[in-house]
Specification:
With 117 residues, the protein is mainly alpha-helical. The chain has one domain. Helices cover 77% and strands 9% of the residues. The chain has 2 helices and 2 strands; from the N terminus they run E-H-H-E. It has helices spanning 16-56, 61-109; strands at 7-11, 112-116. A two-stranded antiparallel ribbon has the order 1-2. Helix 1 (16-56) runs antiparallel to helix 2 (61-109). The longest helix is centred in the C-terminal third of the chain and has 49 residues, at 61-109. It is elongated, with a radius of gyration of 24 Å. The chain starts with 6 loop residues before the first strand and ends with a strand.
Length: 117
Protein backbone atom coordinates (compact mmCIF):
# COMPACT_ATOMS: atom_id res chain seq x y z
CA UNK A 1 0.00 0.00 0.00
CA UNK A 2 1.25 3.42 -0.93
CA UNK A 3 1.83 6.00 1.76
CA UNK A 4 0.04 9.30 1.08
CA UNK A 5 1.75 12.44 2.28
CA UNK A 6 -0.51 15.08 3.77
CA UNK A 7 0.32 18.76 3.83
CA UNK A 8 -1.37 21.38 5.98
CA UNK A 9 -1.93 24.68 4.19
CA UNK A 10 -3.47 27.88 5.51
CA UNK A 11 -5.91 29.95 3.45
CA UNK A 12 -4.48 33.47 3.72
CA UNK A 13 -7.03 35.22 1.49
CA UNK A 14 -10.03 34.46 -0.70
CA UNK A 15 -10.78 36.17 -4.04
CA UNK A 16 -13.84 38.31 -3.31
CA UNK A 17 -15.43 38.72 -6.77
CA UNK A 18 -14.85 35.14 -7.99
CA UNK A 19 -16.25 33.38 -4.93
CA UNK A 20 -19.12 35.87 -4.50
CA UNK A 21 -20.10 35.39 -8.14
CA UNK A 22 -20.06 31.58 -7.91
CA UNK A 23 -22.12 31.53 -4.70
CA UNK A 24 -24.56 34.10 -6.14
CA UNK A 25 -25.15 32.09 -9.33
CA UNK A 26 -25.83 28.98 -7.23
CA UNK A 27 -28.29 31.03 -5.15
CA UNK A 28 -29.97 32.33 -8.32
CA UNK A 29 -30.45 28.80 -9.70
CA UNK A 30 -31.77 27.42 -6.42
CA UNK A 31 -34.12 30.40 -5.98
CA UNK A 32 -35.46 29.92 -9.51
CA UNK A 33 -36.15 26.21 -8.92
CA UNK A 34 -37.77 26.85 -5.54
CA UNK A 35 -39.76 29.73 -7.08
CA UNK A 36 -41.18 27.40 -9.72
CA UNK A 37 -42.18 24.90 -7.04
CA UNK A 38 -43.78 27.62 -4.89
CA UNK A 39 -45.63 28.98 -7.93
CA UNK A 40 -47.04 25.56 -8.85
CA UNK A 41 -48.13 24.82 -5.28
CA UNK A 42 -49.54 28.33 -4.82
CA UNK A 43 -51.40 28.21 -8.13
CA UNK A 44 -52.99 24.86 -7.26
CA UNK A 45 -53.99 26.11 -3.82
CA UNK A 46 -55.44 29.32 -5.26
CA UNK A 47 -57.34 27.36 -7.91
CA UNK A 48 -58.82 25.05 -5.23
CA UNK A 49 -59.85 27.96 -3.00
CA UNK A 50 -61.36 29.84 -5.96
CA UNK A 51 -63.46 26.83 -6.95
CA UNK A 52 -64.61 26.41 -3.36
CA UNK A 53 -65.69 30.07 -3.13
CA UNK A 54 -67.47 29.89 -6.48
CA UNK A 55 -69.27 26.71 -5.40
CA UNK A 56 -70.52 28.48 -2.26
CA UNK A 57 -71.40 31.76 -4.00
CA UNK A 58 -71.84 31.31 -7.76
CA UNK A 59 -72.60 35.01 -8.26
CA UNK A 60 -68.99 35.87 -7.31
CA UNK A 61 -67.43 33.80 -10.12
CA UNK A 62 -66.36 36.75 -12.26
CA UNK A 63 -64.76 38.66 -9.38
CA UNK A 64 -63.08 35.57 -7.90
CA UNK A 65 -61.64 34.56 -11.28
CA UNK A 66 -60.38 38.12 -11.87
CA UNK A 67 -58.69 38.29 -8.47
CA UNK A 68 -57.22 34.80 -8.89
CA UNK A 69 -55.78 35.75 -12.29
CA UNK A 70 -54.23 38.91 -10.84
CA UNK A 71 -52.71 37.03 -7.91
CA UNK A 72 -51.37 34.36 -10.27
CA UNK A 73 -49.73 36.98 -12.49
CA UNK A 74 -48.17 38.82 -9.56
CA UNK A 75 -46.99 35.52 -8.05
CA UNK A 76 -45.35 34.55 -11.33
CA UNK A 77 -43.54 37.87 -11.66
CA UNK A 78 -42.32 37.77 -8.08
CA UNK A 79 -41.43 34.09 -7.67
CA UNK A 80 -39.94 33.46 -11.12
CA UNK A 81 -38.40 36.83 -11.97
CA UNK A 82 -37.87 39.13 -8.98
CA UNK A 83 -37.02 36.63 -6.23
CA UNK A 84 -34.09 34.92 -8.03
CA UNK A 85 -32.60 38.28 -9.08
CA UNK A 86 -32.90 39.62 -5.53
CA UNK A 87 -31.33 36.42 -4.20
CA UNK A 88 -28.43 36.86 -6.63
CA UNK A 89 -27.64 40.44 -5.61
CA UNK A 90 -28.20 39.96 -1.88
CA UNK A 91 -26.11 36.78 -1.85
CA UNK A 92 -23.35 38.54 -3.78
CA UNK A 93 -23.28 41.42 -1.29
CA UNK A 94 -23.47 39.16 1.78
CA UNK A 95 -20.79 36.80 0.51
CA UNK A 96 -18.51 39.69 -0.44
CA UNK A 97 -18.85 41.20 3.05
CA UNK A 98 -18.03 37.87 4.72
CA UNK A 99 -15.01 37.32 2.46
CA UNK A 100 -13.73 40.86 3.03
CA UNK A 101 -14.07 40.29 6.77
CA UNK A 102 -12.20 36.97 6.46
CA UNK A 103 -9.44 38.59 4.38
CA UNK A 104 -9.12 41.31 7.02
CA UNK A 105 -9.04 38.94 10.01
CA UNK A 106 -7.10 35.96 8.61
CA UNK A 107 -3.66 37.63 8.73
CA UNK A 108 -4.33 38.86 12.28
CA UNK A 109 -5.79 35.77 13.97
CA UNK A 110 -4.92 33.00 11.53
CA UNK A 111 -6.74 31.59 8.57
CA UNK A 112 -8.46 28.31 7.92
CA UNK A 113 -6.07 25.35 7.88
CA UNK A 114 -6.71 22.66 5.29
CA UNK A 115 -5.17 19.21 5.27
CA UNK A 116 -4.33 18.30 1.67
CA UNK A 117 -3.13 14.99 0.29
Amino acid sequence: MEKVETVIKEVKSIPVIDVSLIVSVISLILSFVVGIIYFIVGYNTLYTISNYIIALHPQTAEIVNSVAASITGMGFVYLILIWPVMAFFLTFIGTAIVILLYNFLAPRIGGIRLELE
